[in-house]
């Protein structure tokens, strides 16, 4: 079965002084999804952006906005992101008191729902909710910061999740997040991922204002994926 590969730039590494233009330009370069990292200085030791920024970006692009919640508690912010135009909302199961309830809440708000696993978080959280997830996000770094090094042990975990998804018979997207670059994206794809988050590898590639500044890095990732 051939998988469709999707590239999801993380705007965490974008130039926040011109975020709308960054989103427009990176999607024009051939990327598929905007990965939106939400950090609360509580669940993770960093603080980023919330629903207001999502709402501001919504009219700028038709691309899927994939909201990665690194917040605790989770539930009370979900309706705000849905209203702000998020398409996918994922959360870390250890940050939710009631995982089944949180997954249902996301879908009730009209979004696709997903669970996020840190490198050392057990996949057993999936045991009773496979029918309630549309996406599984595997962290290949510990969450909180862009620009970290890919943890190679997560490749085995990616293979394990790919098996679980295939056994489920459902169209669940498998996203890998952290340290993904041109030189390892094919390996991540071969392990079973189909959505590739890349922050520093894409937005760190250029700092000038040429609208085509991301074309070459996105094309290089696509070329690697074609070989996978
Ligand atoms: C880390 C975030 C990632 C991060 C990825 O907590 O979830 O999305 O921005 O950045 P890179 O691609 O630079 O590792
Ligand atoms: Zn992320």
Structural features, described:
This protein is of the alpha/beta class and 228 residues long. It has one domain (6-225): Alpha-Beta Barrel (TIM Barrel), CATH 3.20.20. The protein is 31% helix and 18% strand. The chain contains eight helices and eight strands, in the order βαβαβαβαββαβαβαα. The chain has an eight-stranded parallel beta sheet with strand order 1-8-7-6-5-4-3-2. Strand 4 (88-91), helix 4 (99-108) and strand 5 (112-117) form a beta-alpha-beta unit. Zinc ion is lined by residues 10, 35, 37, 68, 177, 197. Zinc ion binds at residues 10, 35, 37, 68, 177, 197.
Structural class comes to alpha/beta
Global outline: globular
Biggest pleated-sheet summary: 8 strands, parallel
Low-pLDDT runs: none
Give the DSSP E fraction (strand runs of 2 or more residues): 15-25%
CATH level-3 fold name:
TIM Barrel
Give helix % range. 25-40%
- Can you tell me the CATH architecture? Alpha-Beta Barrel
Over the alpha carbons, how many angstroms does the gyration radius reach? 16 Å
Helix count from the secondary structure assignment: 8
Query: Helix and strand succession?
Result: EHEHEHEHEEHEHEHH
How many strand segments?
Answer: 8
Mean pLDDT: 97
- Main-sheet strand order equals 1-8-7-6-5-4-3-2
Distinct small-molecule ligands in the complex: D-xylitol-5-phosphate, zinc ion
CATH superfamily: Aldolase class I
Intertermini distance: 13 Å
């Amino acid at each position: 079965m051939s998988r469709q590969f999707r590239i999801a730039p993380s705007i965490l590494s974008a130039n926040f002084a011109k975020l709308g233009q960054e989103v427009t330009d990176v999607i024009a370069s051939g990327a598929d999804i905007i990965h939106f990292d939400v950090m609360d200085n509580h669940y993770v030791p960093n603080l980023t952006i919330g629903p207001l920024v999502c709402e501001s970006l919504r009219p700028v692009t038709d691309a899927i906005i994939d909201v990665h919640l690194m917040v605790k508690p989770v539930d009370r912010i979900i309706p705000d992101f849905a209203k702000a135009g998020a398409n996918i909302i994922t959360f870390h199961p250890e940050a939710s008191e009631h995982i089944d309830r949180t997954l249902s809440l996301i879908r009730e708000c009209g979004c696709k729902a997903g669970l996020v696993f840190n490198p050392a978080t057990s996949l057993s959280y999936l045991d009773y909710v496979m029918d309630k997830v549309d996406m599984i996000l595997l962290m290949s770094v510990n969450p909180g910061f862009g620009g970290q090094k890919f943890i190679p042990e997560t490749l085995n975990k990616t293979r394990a999740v790919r098996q679980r998804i295939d056994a489920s018979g459902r169209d669940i997207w498998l996203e890998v997040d952290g340290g993904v670059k041109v030189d390892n994206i094919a390996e991540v794809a071969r392990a079973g991922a189909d959505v590739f988050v890349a922050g520093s590898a894409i937005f760190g590639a250029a700092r000038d204002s040429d609208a085509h500044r991301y074309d070459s890095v996105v094309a290089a990732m696509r070329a690697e994926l074609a070989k996978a």
